[in-house]
Amino acid sequence: MQLIKGDRGGMLSMSDDSVMMKQVQATHAPDGREVDVAPLLHLVEDILNRATLQVEPPLLAGQAHAEMEEKNHQISYSIVLDALSYVIDRISCEIAYKALGGADAHGTTMTILETLTSFQWDAKLVMTLAAFALHYGEFWLLAQIYSSNQLAKSMAILKQLPMIMEHSGPLKPRFDALNKLIKAMVEVTRCMVQFKELPPSYISEDVPALTQAMTHIPTAVYWTIRSVVACANQITLLTTMGHEYALSTTEAWELSSLEHKLTNICDHLKQQLGSCYQHIDDKKNVETFRMLVELFEMTHIDNMKILKALIHARDDPMPIVDGSTKRKVTLEVLRRKNVLLLISDLNISHDELSILEQIYNESRIHTTRLDSQYEVIWIPVVDPSIVWTEAMHKQFETLQSTMPWYTVSHPSVIEKAVVRYIREKWHFRNKAILVVLDPQGRVVSPNAIHMMWIWGSNAFPFTSLREESLWREEAWRLELLVNGIDPMILNWIKDGKYIFLYGGDDVEWVRKFTNTARAVAVASRIPLEMAYVGKSTKKELVRRVLATITVEKLSYFWQDPTMIWFFWTRLESMLFSKIQQGKLDDHDPMMLEIKKLLSYDKEGGWAVLSKGSNIISNGHGNTVLTTLVEYDLWKEEIPVKGFDLAYDDHHKKVHGVTYPCCRFEFPNTAGRIPEGMKCPECHRYMEKYTTFLCCHDEGHPTASPFRGAFEKRCLE
What's this model's pTM, rounded to 2 decimal places? Predict the structure, then answer.
């Protein structure tokens, strides 16, 4: 008893860690051979996981055995064991002999390290743990089967196991302490093997995290082997002295102290390992990003290489979902097709999806037409630094279930490098974009969402050349503003009526404007229709205006809020389309009028007057209302000039006296933002501001409550 307990204070006697580590380092002289000990560690973990006081139920044990058998077929242990079995047996005997001989734990640990001098650090640990597993596994194997196997029973009696098991209750605290320490030993060993498995092509020892880990590895190896010796001593004491041997306070403290020390070591190693994995992940992402850049610069016979690079299938041969059947399919369904990548975050609005679905479904009706043969696939972009939650998963599934086109099966198939490419090369800033790939995978438009909003499927094949062609065919006419939104206004145009298209959020201005305009129409004997199209923001104020228009029957209006959203989205898309093309021509009359209209929306009310398709005047709310109120000043000109010219001339006079401010807002999510813009009124360069908005009246649950915007103003 005294011999076995000979050095219980040994763990504290070596107070100078640096001296001890020099001794440990002196035993390390690897001969250069590389041993893959990962399969052996897997085997050892299986032994130690099953070597417990509680015997597993037969069914569970049978399932575990079947799983182990399957893994045995996959991993061959024979090569490793042929090379290492002699050394493992020798260490096992050394541990048992030194325990019986009363050698101190430090001395035994150093002897084991000297025996393993020619092996790498990870191999030293795994082999020592394997040697312990032989001893510990045999103990528990006999304990679990001696009651049903005569040979095991006879051997168990020699080791006093029946008596130990009969008194297992009082021994439970000891076994619990051993299990905790063994778990810590395995964790440290697993970390060591993981460090060894780090790919040298992506990380070298001069990386700070790996450098720090390397300096702590000798300490980790020493204390893990020291813990193996302590655990082996406990089993030896039980089998040689029987259940009557009680765990002393010093021994209990030693097991607890070792477990605490190994846990701290393991936590530190895991932290460094995590940093190493991050370093490797970053390098792989850079490599993948470069590969993507090169891939998009190459010529391909079809689009499959591009699609497979963007949508990383991993082990899933069917990484996308067919929106019509809700079944998973392979990427082959998109081979040699025009593919529109709908890229957004999980906050894509209902309005956007509703209009896109309408355009998509209309194109499906004409699937026999060559100019309608395209497919859409949703690519959800989620910030890789954000932890994926159940709420996010439900949000993704809800969006996915509403989409009639293809979607990826999960956002995780979009790798970090792909997200970087989408943001850097396609200028994605969380606002939905539509990147167009032709049948060979070439990007023919970095963002066709503006074309889609303006011209729908008529913009097929959604190339930049097609966009230029469509603009050449356009003119500043009322159809440009309302086409595809409301057939009622299109009928007014066909009938050649005068039409006031107006907007704003001031109820009093709306009331004065509509009543005055109606009075002028009656006095001038012209057929006039008016349509309220709301405002691009401030939805709550727009709802109040709509309520007033309804009650007082002031004019025609759009009851569906999505139509109002679509009107303003199309108008903004016209500006963004020109910006994307790099052709924001300050001398283009059509773009000047579009810019005026967008600017007026930010500064109160506005109104556009047309006769049929021809737009007569586009003015700010104040100048338009003043022109109508001053009808008596220009009504005498009507018989001479006609209503159109008389109205326009007087409006220009009013406008020349009171220039309104011009303002444009570009949200940070807009992607491409122009460096500078000229005022559509005075043609001088506008000043640039940064604005922060908090729009509580948007009524959109996914709208950002706090967003930054670049604002350009021209203050006359």
Answer: 0.75
